[in-house]
Amino acid sequence: SSTRLRIFSKRNALIVSIVVSAAVAFLVGRASSPLFLYGPLLGPYLDGDGARGRRKAVKTLIQLAAEMDGDVYFHNDAEFCDASEVWQNGISPPLAVIEVASEADVQLALPALAEIYLKRGIPFRVRSGGHSYAGYSTKERGIMLSLKRLNHYEFDESTGIATLQQAVQVQDFLDGILVPNGFGGVVGECPGVALGFVLGGGYGFLSRKYGLGCDNVISARVVLADGSVVVASETEAPDLFWALRGAGQNSFGVVTQIDYQLHPSQDTQLVVTGKVPLDPAFLTTMGKRYKTSPGEFGFL
């Protein structure tokens, strides 16, 4: 009986050892899993309809973060609120924010986002300045591709052409190009508007003289859905160039940089702001005066 007891005890000990080992392996495996680390901290976005697809998307985004120079932020990250911020109030935050640091990062991110959308049905939006009136810079339960770090610019005074990355804002333009060089152009009326606004047409104070912002685009570097880069202009990829100027937001690719025609600034500048009545008689009078007023006179 004592022999049987020893065998029984050894068998129980072996079973307990196997169970403990399996439990430890399971917990270690879960602890090293991105979903174990991030899943519980993402709140309602990993629950409800489409939860499984969102979980798989999170795993893809974490893998992407390891490959790129930029960052991917989730709700539990301290940087998430700042990274997901947009000008328009009342818009729910996205599932995650991909904040690229270079065009090469965009080349990595865009194929991943296209795959997530096609396989998981999770949309994404592109943010340059985050100043979209309609809130198109972000998407609830979607993914934001933020270009905010792509804010470098160069200016060639001999040609009046500025090379601008998409997140260069009006204030950057005024401080870095207009004031020191005396060249202006069609830019947004608010200091936080990014030059990416030209992809939607781009109306500014000087549009009566120089046209819409898109009329002043000379060329654009575009990352396509497969990660390749093309330069679109009147002579290269002209169909894409035509489409980008006015319908280029979240449409045919991600524009990372444009060559933009600027113009010598006027010596006298005056900007007047105030409330204007939407009265038919007033608007008719303004329309008549527009016909005879110089191109430098803009009305927004």
Question: What this model shows, in words?
Answer:
The chain is an alpha+beta fold. It has 9 helices and 11 strands. The strands form 3 sheets. Strands 5-6-10-8-9 form a 5-stranded antiparallel sheet. It has a 4-stranded mixed sheet with strand order 1-2-4-3. A two-stranded antiparallel sheet has the order 7-11. A hairpin with a 4-residue loop joins strand 5 (153-156) and strand 6 (161-165). Helix 3 (51-67) packs antiparallel against helix 5. The N and C termini lie far apart (99 Å). The mean pLDDT is 82.
Descriptive labels:
single chain, 4-stranded mixed beta sheet, alpha+beta, 38% helix, globular, 5-stranded antiparallel beta sheet, 9 helices, 300 residues
Query: Overall pLDDT, averaged?
Result: 82
Give the terminus-to-terminus CA distance: 99 Å
Counting H and I runs of at least 4 residues, what is the number of helices?
A: 9
Order of helices and strands: HHHEHEHEEEEHEHEEHEEH
Question: Using only CA atoms, what is the Rg?
Answer: 27 Å
Number of strands: 11
Structural class based on helices, strands and sheet pairing = alpha+beta
Give the overall silhouette.
globular
Any low-confidence stretches, pLDDT <50, length ≥5?
Answer: none
Helix content: 25-40%
Please state how the strands of the largest beta sheet are arranged side by side.
5-6-10-8-9
Strand content: 15-25%
Mind summarizing the main beta sheet? 5 strands, antiparallel
